[in-house]
Amino acid sequence: MTDTQKTRNGARMQNLGGAKMSRRRMLKHAGVAGALSTVGRSLLATGGAAVGSTLAAPAVSRAQEGITLRGIFLPATWGTITQEVFAKEYEEQTGVKVEIELIGRDAIHDKMGTLFVAQDPSYDIFNVDYNWVPEFGRAGHLLAMDDVLAAPETEGDGFLPRALDVARWEDTLYGIPQTVHPHILWYRKDLFEEAGLEPPATMQDWRAIVEQFQGTEVEGQEIYGWAAQAARGFGNVHTWLTFLYSFGGDAFNYETMEPTLATPEATEGTQFWADMMKFTPPGINDYTYDEVTNDAAAGRIATCLQWSWGAFAVDDPATSKTVGLWEFVKVPAGTESVPHLAEWVISVSNYSQHQEEAIKFIQWLENPENDVRQALLGGGDPVRSSSYENPELTGAEVEGFPGLKRFRRYPETLEAMQTTKPRPLFPEEERWEQVVSVPLHAIQLGEMTVEEGLAKAQDDVNRMMMELGYY
User: Fold this and answer.
1) Phi, psi angle pair for 384, to nearest 5°
2) What is the dihedral of CA 99, 100, 106, 111, to 10 degrees?
3) Which domains does the chain possess?
4) Which region among 59-68, 249-258, 342-351 has the lowest average model confidence (pLDDT)?
5) What pTM value is reported for the model?
6) What pLDDT shows up at residue 13?
7) 261: DSSP letter
8) Which neighbouring-strand residues pair with 344?
9) What digits encode the pLDDT tens for the residues 77-86?
């Protein structure tokens, strides 16, 4: 990485971490960054049309009939509805067939790498975890999409700014956002009310609350203070980042790309995270998204740090014992509230033989109307700010529970998008996560102190960056 690139990327990461935007300004200038909900399943059964909506026809001619687009998406709800609803609808309207293959996160990354090395044109579009954008963008494998964003039919000024920022590398856009889901704090409203507690505004308040709930019993069910992803790999890293950021720490000095994992701020945030692990369920060190969600639905935890999008699961009466009992607030502040961001974008292969058709499909799929429809189908949290005030979403209720709002998390999700911060944006970020995860796991297990673990992480990342030629 050249000095100019370091400076440009450093400034961008600092802006992502520090800039705050009023809700009014965000609503004016932006738009947001799996199993299906009961309402989502009913919409799938009827072809996905939202009540009261008029489906906009994509700007594609029937002359393109016979073209087949092939894509690879994550088998989360947004990938499922793209495959089962939107791809079929698009073909009906345009004659362009869209074949969507659903595979896991790591498999997507590996397959993209294999296809791109061979410059294989077999696939046209990809569901991309945003931290892959620098890797594949730098290598020239992804189509630059700034002109796509600027095209009138994209209505690009409606996207949430941070959702677009993380889809860029070196000031070039390489993907159009499909879903965002920043960390927010989930809490059991009924348990809090019974205990006379308010939802926590600070990390210290939260710690006192989880300690109070840990080991209590409600209707024969033992309650634990909180849960979050903690499995070695990206799980523990993604949770830890919210604590690191919220105590004023960061992963790098982005001017020099030197790690900053042993600073006082990083130490304080990591120590707080490690201390909080005492108030979690047994087996927490193996928890993934599924275990956290299952515990919330089963009523085993009083709070959790979880992606905003996942809240649909606790309101599904087919699988949840806690329908309507969860409410949501922004992540409690250490020095400030800085939740870690999760987001998936849609990118076009530079080797696709149908780039124009791929762009038109993405423009149609992510237009304002379909952003709302994807949310109604349970596909993910919207990527356009207007969706957060759309009456079809704000007025939607959980089927069978009159008055229970399906998307009651949206005000907190939109607020989180003002301060949320991504993973470090550089091409080797996936490798960085694996390096950092090991000492974090040792801290979790008590095999290292926080100071020892962070010192090892600092040394290991420094060695990695030197090997990669950053300095």
Assistant:
1) -125, 135
2) 10
3) 14-181+342-419 (3.40.190.10), 183-340+428-467 (3.40.190.10)
4) 59-68
5) 0.89
6) 62
7) T
8) 129, 179
9) 999 999 999 9
